[in-house]
Amino acid sequence: MVEHPRPARRRFGAVGALLATVLVLGACGSGGSDESSDSDAGVDSSETDTQAGPFFGECGSVTDDEVVSLMGVTAFDLITRDSVGCSWEITGEAMPSVAFSWYRGSPIARERAGSEMIGRPAEDIEVDGHPGFQGVGYSALTGAAVLCEIGIDFGADFQHWSINYGATPPAADPCEVARELAQLSIGRSQ
């Protein structure tokens, strides 16, 4: 029988355990003097001073039936729910879809800039007393609005609704659908 060497074991003992505990607790502490600031750590203090927004619940507390009804479609083939939001899709190329995302501790300005970068100029809007933006995408064939995204600001958080009719003729104004979904979600927040 061949014996395999045993892996070396390190023995820290009481002194090693105490040292490890001190190091971990020291890393969690304030790190020193009262003169340090969030900006020293690369954190924008205006973002950290803002309070968290409300709790919206899964899918913004909006039901699948409400999304189907507002979009004016018969049903969605694929509905996805995960830790960051929900999406409702009809399978196939360039088919209608709806997406909801809830961003905790993320600046809405980044999402707004993204909309602008992809050719959807953002305009200021307000939904139920909350500021936000709206970006619209138009069909190259008909010139009709087929896509609308709305971001609503809640201090350190924001919610985002995206309505896309794809290549199908819109059954409703995509921005009205997005606004109504946002209003439902805001009204049901906690």
Mean pLDDT score: 78
Radius of gyration: 24 Å
How would you spell out the order of helices and strands?
Answer: HHHEEEHEEEEH
Tally of contiguous helical segments: 5
- The total of beta strands comes to 7
Report the β-strand fraction as a percent range.
Answer: 25-35%
Low-confidence stretches: 1-49
**Widest sheet: strand ordering:** 1-2-3-7-6-5-4
Shape: globular
Structural class computed from helices and strand pairing: alpha+beta
Distance between the termini: 67 Å
- Main sheet characteristics: 7 strands, antiparallel
Helix content range of the residues, please? Answer: 25-40%
Topology (SSEs and partners):
Elements: H1 13-28, H2 45-48, H3 64-71, E1 78-82, E2 85-89, E3 97-103, H4 108-117, E4 122-127, E5 130-138, E6 145-154, E7 157-164, H5 174-187
Antiparallel strand pairs: 1-2, 2-3, 3-7, 4-5, 5-6, 6-7
Describe the protein's architecture and organization:
By secondary structure, this protein is an alpha+beta fold. The protein contains 5 helices and 7 strands. The chain has a 7-stranded antiparallel sheet with strand order 1-2-3-7-6-5-4, with helices on both faces. β2 and β3 form a beta hairpin. It is globular. Residues 1-49 have low confidence and may be disordered.
